[in-house]
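Sequence design from tokenized structure. All designs in this work follow the same two-part layout: the structure record, then the generated sequence. An example of the structure record is given first.
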């Protein structure tokens, strides 16, 4: 079980600002780190990624750049050489970096391969320069550099630094119950969690910008057209759908907005924070209850991700982030542990199986759907309307519901994942 300090550490590392979709950013980070360690003038960049990093980076926009794809993400990172900026490194893109990245890709000096047997988050970048060769490897989390090798000599190894590979805090969290997570969150003071308010400010600002200046394929524009009409009233569900969808559409179209992520993903951050912020505003919740609801939802997002995988065949934004937001809304409105568990069961029995087919503006529609389900699942649970344990993949406890989600993701949908990836690859031919 996590200690209070360990949970605070997780909150401060999982809820962080991100600039651009975190999968191409993760590739850029690996390339930036390898290029910085190598020094000298670039000769070539080779990237190896697991299938789901490839899926999520194939079509999503890169902020400040007019092309998409992991080859360009790698080239940009190699040109930037600024790994210290973490998930915000693409903020430093300028014309010189753009020109250099375009030349690298067009000259065939950037190669991207899929390592099919890597099921978890994995990026390995090899950079060759006139000064030598450097390899940087990232595993399990978007900023988790686990190895650096320069000219054949390993200069950093995360396992040797910590004595253990993997994420021990995430493993501890996965063994907790939802009630234990909620009780630990309750032990915090407002002052200890006040930093989470920045996520509301940041993501609300992005949502408002995205509504005022729509991008993408017209999802936000359509919401603008129908909101406040007999078709769609300005109620909680519609407002949450509009804000989440508009922000995600703009962000994944490549607009230069920094948002607060959750569990390593920007879209998850929007899907977790905006519904809770909107609910808090509607009911007039005080600051302490609001930040505790945010902390609870961020931790539940990480908890569910620990079971299904941060990148899987299922849409983790829908299954993890929106389920966490639903439980957070129930908590915020005074729901007890039984109703919180029912909320999770309702989500399990409604949108389970939503596939992940990569990051792109279409994710806005998926998250609008998942956010609507979150509002419904929470309201139903608060009114003691809960799906039966005998229903499909539902279970008696919240923990068993989450474990069932994990089983469906892996091994259940591993073949689905391969088929989805092949369909995406076929479109490139």
């Amino acid at each position: 079980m996590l200690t209070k300090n360990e949970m605070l550490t997780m909150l401060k590392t999982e809820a962080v600002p991100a600039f651009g979709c975190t999968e191409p950013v993760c590739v850029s980070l690996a390339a930036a780190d390898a290029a910085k360690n190598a020094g000298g003038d670039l000769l070539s960049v080779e990237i190896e990624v697991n299938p789901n990093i490839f899926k999520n980076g194939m079509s999503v926009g890169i902020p400040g750049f007019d092309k998409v794809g992991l080859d360009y993400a790698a080239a940009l990172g190699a040109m930037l050489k600024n790994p210290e900026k973490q998930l915000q490194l693409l903020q430093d893109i300028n014309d010189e970096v753009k020109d250099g990245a375009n030349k690298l890709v067009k000259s065939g000096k950037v190669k991207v391969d899929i390592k099919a047997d890597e099921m978890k988050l994995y990026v390995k970048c090899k950079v060759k320069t006139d000064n030598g060769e450097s390899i940087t490897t990232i595993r399990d989390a978007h900023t988790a550099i686990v190895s650096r090798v320069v000219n054949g000599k390993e200069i950093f190894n995360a396992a040797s630094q910590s004595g253990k590979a993997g994420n021990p805090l995430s493993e501890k969290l996965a063994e907790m119950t939802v009630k234990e997570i909620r009780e630990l969150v309750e032990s915090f003071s407002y002052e200890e969690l006040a930093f989470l308010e920045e996520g509301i400010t940041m993501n609300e600002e992005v949502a408002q910008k995205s509504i005022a200046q729509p991008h993408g394929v017209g999802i936000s524009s359509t919401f603008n057209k129908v909101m406040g009409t007999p078709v769609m009233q300005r109620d909680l569900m519609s407002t949450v759908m509009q804000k989440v969808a508009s922000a995600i559409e703009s962000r994944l179209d490549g607009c230069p907005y920094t948002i607060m992520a959750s569990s390593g993903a920007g879209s998850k951050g929007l899907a977790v924070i905006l519904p809770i912020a909107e609910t808090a505003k509607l009911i007039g919740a005080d600051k302490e209850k609001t930040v505790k609801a945010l902390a609870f939802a961020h931790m539940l997002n990480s908890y569910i991700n620990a079971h299904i995988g941060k990148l899987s065949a299922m849409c983790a934004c829908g299954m993890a982030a929106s389920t966490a937001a639903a439980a957070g809304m129930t908590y915020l409105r005074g729901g007890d542990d039984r109703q919180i568990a029912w909320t999770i069961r309702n989500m399990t029995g409604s949108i389970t199986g939503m596939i992940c087919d990569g990051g792109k503006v279409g994710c806005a529609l998926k998250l609008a759907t998942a956010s609507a389900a979150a509002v419904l699942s929470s309201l139903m649970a608060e009114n003691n309307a809960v799906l039966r344990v005998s229903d499909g993949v539902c279970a008696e406890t919240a923990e068993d519901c989450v474990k069932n989600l994990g089983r469906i993701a892996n091994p259940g949908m591993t073949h689905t994942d391969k088929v989805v990836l092949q369909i995406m690859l076929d479109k490139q031919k």
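The chain has two domains: 21-162, 176-428. We note this feature because it recurs in several other targets discussed in the main text.
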